[in-house]
Amino acid sequence: MARVIGGVGTTHVPSIGKAIADRKQNDPYWKPFFDGFHAVHKWLASEKPDVAVVFSNDHGLNFFLDKMPTFAIGAANEYRNEDEGWGIPVSRAAKGNAALSWHIINEVVGEGFDLTMCQEMLVDHAVTIPLQLMWPNGDWPVIVPVSINTVQHPLPSMARCYELGRSVGRAIACYPENVKVMVIGTGGLSHQLDGKRAGFINKDFDKLCMDQLVADPESLTRYTIPQVVELAGAQGVEFLNWMAMRGALTGTVSELHRNYHIPISNTAAATVLFENKPRVERRKAA
Ligand SMILES: [Fe+2]
Q1: In angstroms, what is the span from residue 176 Cα to ligand 1's centroid?
Q2: How far is the CA of 189 from the centre of ligand 1 (A)?
């Protein structure tokens, strides 16, 4: 059976892609951020996941404000990137696993989540930059992209995204193939790109979110979307992707690594690595 071995949360700021292209990983501005991935690289080298389910938000490459699914999932064997206009190189395509995608779709729709099913899907920097950060040698696993609307209000709630993740986690757990799956949530943490609060960062709230993701993720579901916008900034709502990632870790979760660096392009850049151990079912006494 398939199993979810762990999860990673990471920022996906477009300028990271430019820094990678220009090989600036050791520049003083970038080093504290890129160094935060060494522990992730070590874990990936040891665990070797076959598949990464990536929760992220599309920034207009695939969906735009006129047609914005709340939740969408790729069901293809390849996901291409295209020029997004950020001045970063177009990434190579990521491989998909349509059979696993359809299994997840069947299970998750069966549980009441009305996903938009995409047999063709472009992936933007919210997917390709995390892949480049986590597998800098280009040895990417197969991906299943799940897109969550964090752009066009009304957005899904923190609770709904967490529950989506739990449903995806349950779906993976009953997939009959013997594959190691990891989950990734991209975006955030606190940032606001425009308006009077442009440049807003909330270190205290970011820390609370990272702490509670491990200890008590359900406690975060009490925040409404307007509260998240107020506390994390207009684009800080990308944390919804992290909530889905955490939801998919349905076993016993422990934090193996955390890095938090301010700022990268007006964003609080964060990286977390979680291990997910299956819960041992205890036999009832005879
Ligand atoms: Fe973003």
Answers
A1: 34
A2: 10
> Strand, coil or helix: what is 49?
coil
Name the pairing type of β-strands 267-277 and 3-10.
antiparallel
CB 36 within 8 A of CB 259: yes
Q: Is 125 a catalytic residue?
A: yes
pLDDT at 281 (0 to 100): 57
* Number of domains the chain contains: 1
162 Cα–ligand 1 center, Å: 19
Query: What is the DSSP secondary-structure string of 65-87?
Result: TTB--SEEEE-SSEEB----SSS
In a domain, 60, yes or no: yes
**Measured between alpha carbons, how far apart are the two ends of the chain, in Å?**
28
Annotated catalytic residue within 12, 103, 125, 261? 125
Q: The domain that contains 101 carries what CATH number?
A: 3.40.830.10
Taken in order 167, 114, 67, 120, is the CA torsion positive or negative? positive
pLDDT per residue as tens digits for the range 131-184? 999 999 999 999 999 999 999 999 999 999 999 999 999 999 999 999 999 999
| Element (DSSP H or E) covering residue 269 | strand 267-277
| Ligand 1: centre distance to CA 199 (Å) | 14
Contact 136, 41 (CB under 8 A): yes
In a domain, 195, yes or no: yes
The SS3 of residue 138 is coil
